[in-house]
Amino acid sequence: MAITKSAFLRYRTLDRCLRNKGRKYTLNDLLEKVNETLQEENLDSSGIAKRQLQYDIEFMKSTNGYSAPIIHFQEGMKHYYHYEDKNFSINNEPLNETEVEQLRSALAMLSRFEGAPQFEWLAEMMPVLSDTFKLEGNQKKVMGFDSNIDYTGNERLPTIFSAIVNKRVIEVTYKPYNQPSSKIVFHPHYLKQHNHRWFAFGKNHNPPNELQHVSDLWNLALDRVESIKETDEEYQESEIDWEEDYFGDIFGVTKTSDTPETIVLWFTPEQAPYITTKALHRSQRPPEIHPDGSITLRMQVIPNYELETLILSFGEKVKVKAPESLVTRIKERLTNSISNY
To answer: Minimal CB count within 10 Å: which of 2, 78, 298, 320?
Structure first.
């Protein structure tokens, strides 16, 4: 039996009540406390019935649960529940069989991940975890990830990740395309993967004079990083909610302004079902459906190169209706593309 979040909350609530030496709890008292906890976590929760509570108590008492020494006693007409061992708590117990099995299953799934750079740490951790939880190895992989095994930025991930977590400033030797290498003292704040490439976002400690006017936020492609070393500079933290505040209005990783625009796209009847079932962006409104099956959709995003590339990927099955600047830009790129043939 899997231990869900709801079950975990119920067991922890029962544990607090049963080890409370200053109060006696009836079954109804326990039910009230458990349902209070569930409703605090989720206002829409209707709680559980007494039968489920009794199942929970039996599970906690079982060897598959926590082997909890739960007993009940009678005083007058009422029956009360508590731990026979006043010092017992499920928080003090090692993992039970059910929890071990869930971890074993989770590790088995992770071991089958193929081609995902962010899971490279499993190569070192899996033998230790497998030995601890007696995880059987050599199981057939059943999941795959689309990644570029020749991508040269992967080896930089652990160092930059560690710098972010430990709030360390790094000196990066960085080589943009078709430009010479330069040294950047960098305060890394966030890592983002896009189109099989990794990017580090943060603050350049001392940008060149000609770039002093550029936003404090810098974007470094990890495959352009030649070397990294830590410095003794004082780390400057970021208060940005990256996914919400920074990436919420864009496609990809390039932010050209702070002002989203209304993007209006028309899709052919053939393409419409795919766009309807898989939104391009979270700001996308319900599409306008035309009699011929084509659709027009609107979304609020900041135009950038990644948006243009996305639009062009739909070929003849899309038409940009607004804004005019994006219409012009897509026309130019299509014209340049045709000139290659």
So the answer is: 2
Q: Spell out the domains of the chain, with CATH numbers in brackets.
A: 5-92 (1.10.10), 97-133 (no CATH), 154-244 (2.30.30), 249-338 (3.30.70)
**pLDDT (0 to 100) of residue 108:** 64
The pLDDT score that the predictor gives to residue 109 is 62
Cα separations (Å) of 288 from 62, 262, 281? 57, 15, 16
Task: Pull the structure tokens for residue 288.
Answer: 């306008």
User: Which residue shows structure tokens 């458990």?
Assistant: 34
For the stretch 91-132, pLDDT in tens is: 886 666 666 666 666 666 666 554 555 555 565 566 656 655
Which segment of 33-37, 53-57, 159-163, 291-295 scores lowest on mean pLDDT? Answer: 159-163
Structural Rg of the chain based on CA atoms: 28
Whether residue 38 contacts residue 45, with contact meaning beta carbons closer than 8 Å, is answered with yes
Secondary structure class of 324 (helix, strand, coil): helix
Model pTM greater than 0.90?
no
With b for 16 or more beta-carbon neighbours within 10 A and e for fewer, the 160-189 pattern comes to: bbebbeeebbbbbebeeeeeeeeebebbbb
19 and 81 Cβ atoms separated by less than 8 Å: no
| Whole-number Cα distances in Å, 311 to 78, 190, 248, 251, 281 | 70, 27, 18, 11, 12
Tokens of 276: 């309807």
pLDDT in tens, 13-36: 999 999 998 899 999 999 999 999
Under a CB-based contact definition with an 8 Å cutoff, are residues 228 and 208 in contact? no
Q: Is the pLDDT of residue 193 over 90?
A: no
- Distance, in Å, from the CA atom of 242 to the CA atom of 248, rounded to the nearest integer, reads 8
Beta strand segments in 24-87, E: 70-75, 78-83
Q: How far apart are CA 231 and CA 229, in angstroms?
A: 7
